[in-house]
Amino acid sequence: MVRNFRHKIKATGKFIYTQNRGRKFILVSIFLLLFVGVVGAGDETWINSKLQSHAGGTYKLPAGTFEIEDTIYIPDGTTLEGTVKNGKLLSKIILVDDAGWPSKKAMIEVENTKQKNIVIRNFEIDGNCENQDEIYGKGYHDMIMLSHPYNVEIYGMYLHDGLSDGIRIHHDYTNEYATVPTNIKIHDNVIFESGHDGIWIKHSSSVDIYDNEITLKGNSGIRLTECSNVQIYDNDISSNNRGFAGIELDKGASSTSMENIEIYNNNLHDLRCWGIWLYGYYKNGAGYDSDQINNIHIHDNSILRCGRSENSYQYREAGGIIIQGFNALIEDNIIDDNAKFGVAFEYWSYSKLGESYKPPAGEKFTVILKNNNIRNTVKSEYPKDKQGYGVANILDSNHVFVLKGNTVSGSETKNYLC
C-alpha cells in the first residue's frame, strides 16, 4: 500500500513524500534517487565530531541517509540542520535495526542540561520502529528529547515511525521556568505516527506550537504537562485509528500552576478518542488547588469525527472535548459528528491506573461554554456509559458548566445532560 503525504513548511515550501509501509522510505524524486544513499551504521560518531567542531555555530548535515547506533548530542548554542534543495529534504537520520537501547535514551539529545539557543531544522528522522524489539509508548527511542533547555526552535522536520515521543522537552519540578521563560518554538513540522506523544512539553513556559501536521499512533498529538504561557494554534491533527487525544493538557499533584494557555485555530479530526482532553488528577492521596489552573482559553477550533473509530468502542474514551479537574473558557468552536459527547465533564477510568487518578476531591472546577456550535453527537458502542449528548456533566458534584449562547443540535440521545 502506498500513501501519498504532503508536508507544508513555510521556510522551504512544499514537500511531497511517498511512503511504502514496509521498511524503506523513498522520497519520490529522480534527484533524490540519485543523491540520497545510506552512508553507514555508526554515523553518529562523525556527526557528533562535526557538531563539536561547530559548537556555538551551525552544522549542516550533507545529503544522504545516516544510520545511527548511538545518540547524537547537540552542544550549547548550536544549530543542527539538514540539506534542502528545490523544496526537498535531502538529509535523513535513521535508527539502526535492533538498536537495543535502554528506555529514556533518544536519537537526538542536548549535550548537557540547561543549554541555550538550540535550533534543529530541515531534515528527516526515521524511528525505524518496525525493526525494533521494544514496545510502543514506554520511553524507548524518542526521536528528539531535550532535557532542561532554554531558547529552542525546531522546525521543518519530518519525523516518522517512532516507538515513543517525536519531540519531548522537559524541565524539573523546581518551578524555575515560572520566572525564567524556557522560550520554545515548534512549528512547521510533520510528525507521522510516533509511538507516544507527537510533541510533549513538560514543566516549561513561553511555548509556541503552530503549523504542525501530526498523525497519531500512540498517546497524543500535542501534550502539555504543567506548563504556562503557551499558545497552540494552526495545527492539523488526525489519526489512522490509533492513539488517544489530539491535544492533551494534564495537571498532577504538585505545587506547579498551569495558566495562560491558549488553544485556537486547530483542525482536530478523525481521532480515535478525544479531540481535546483536559485531565487533572490526584495521585496517592495528593491533589492540587483549583486556583492553580487559570486562564485556559480554547477557541475557534474545528473538532470533527472524534471517537468514531472502531478501536475506541472497546474503551470508554470518545468525545470532542472531555474535561476533569480543569477550569477553562471554551468558546466559538465547531464540534461536529463526534461520538459519546460533544463537550463533557467526565472522569477517565482506566483499570491499569486505578481509582487514584480521579480529579481532586473538595475542589470546584468551572468551565464557561460560550457560543460554540455543537452538533450531530452520536452514541458510541461502549455499552455501559451515558452517551450521545451534545453537552454533559457526569461530574456534577464539583464541576460546573456556565452555558452562554451555544447552539447544540442533532444529538442522538439528547442535546444536554447537565
Structure notes:
This is Disaggregatase-related domain-containing protein. Residues 258-416 form the Disaggregatase-related domain. It comes from Methanosarcina acetivorans (strain ATCC 35395 / DSM 2834 / JCM 12185 / C2A). Keywords: Repeat. It holds the Pfam family Disaggr_assoc. The protein has a single domain, classed as Single-stranded right-handed beta-helix, Pectin lyase-like (Pectate Lyase C-like). It is mainly β. 4% of the residues lie in helices and 44% in strands. A hairpin with a 2-residue loop joins strand 8 (84-85) and strand 9. The protein has two helices and 41 strands. The longest helix has 10 residues, at 44-53. The protein is globular. Residues 1-37 have low confidence and may be disordered. The chain has a twelve-stranded parallel beta sheet, with no helix packed on it. A twelve-stranded parallel beta sheet has the order 5-10-13-16-19-22-25-28-31-34-37-40, with no helix packed on it. A ten-stranded parallel beta sheet has the order 14-17-20-23-26-29-32-35-38-41, with no helix packed on it. It starts with a strand and ends with a strand.
Q: Biggest β-sheet: count, sense, barrel?
A: 12 strands, parallel
Q: What strand line-up does the widest sheet have?
A: 4-7-12-15-18-21-24-27-30-33-36-39
Strand content: 35-45%
Distance between the termini: 46 Å
- CATH class division: Mainly Beta
Taken together, the total number of domains comes to: 1
CATH superfamily: Single-stranded right-handed beta-helix, Pectin lyase-like
Write down the overall mean pLDDT: 88
Assign the structural class, choosing from mainly alpha, mainly beta, alpha/beta, alpha+beta, or little secondary structure.
mainly beta
Helix amount: under 10%
* Oligomeric state of shown chains: single chain
Helical stretch count?
2
What do we call the CATH topology? Pectate Lyase C-like
Shape: globular
Rg over CA atoms:
21 Å
Unreliable spans: 1-37
How many strand units?
A: 41
